[in-house]
Design brief:
Layout lengths: L1 E2 L2 E2 L22 E3 L8 E5 L3 E7 L9 E4 L4 E4 L5 E8 L3 E6 L6 E7 L1
Parallel strand pairs: 3-5, 4-10
Antiparallel strand pairs: 1-2, 5-8, 6-7, 9-10
Length: 112
């Protein structure tokens, strides 16, 4: 399915979110970041700045932070509203993001 400049589809072994930016544009995918939810996979294009919005739906302290170990990023996630994490421009590859206590885990896939 295509919604303007953003394509959403199913991949891997269950429904995942695919975000593909059109030339010169960087949509911001929203990841629901709360214990008991599967953050899924965010897919972006290499060569563009990648920003991801994390939306907490509760005050569980286990979802208070998100870590991108490959990039050296540890961000606090607001208990209300969206927290935008800018991971910059990244080379193609698969990068893990997770809550430091291990209750949440997702993937950022950067395509060429």
């Amino acid at each position: 399915m295509t919604l303007g400049d953003v394509s959403i589809g199913a991949t891997f072994d269950q429904l995942r979110r695919w975000i593909v930016a059109a030339p010169g544009r960087s949509p911001v995918p929203v990841v629901r970041w709360d214990v008991g939810r599967d953050p899924g996979v965010v897919v972006a294009r290499a060569g563009r700045s990648i920003r991801i919005a994390f939306r907490r739906e509760g005050a569980n302290p286990a979802s208070a932070e998100v870590c991108f170990p490959d990039f050296g990023i540890l961000a606090m996630v607001s208990p209300s509203g969206d927290t935008i994490v800018d991971v910059g421009r990244r080379a193609p590859g698969r990068y893990r993001f997770y809550a430091p206590d291990g209750d949440l885990e997702g993937w950022l896939v950067v395509q060429p």
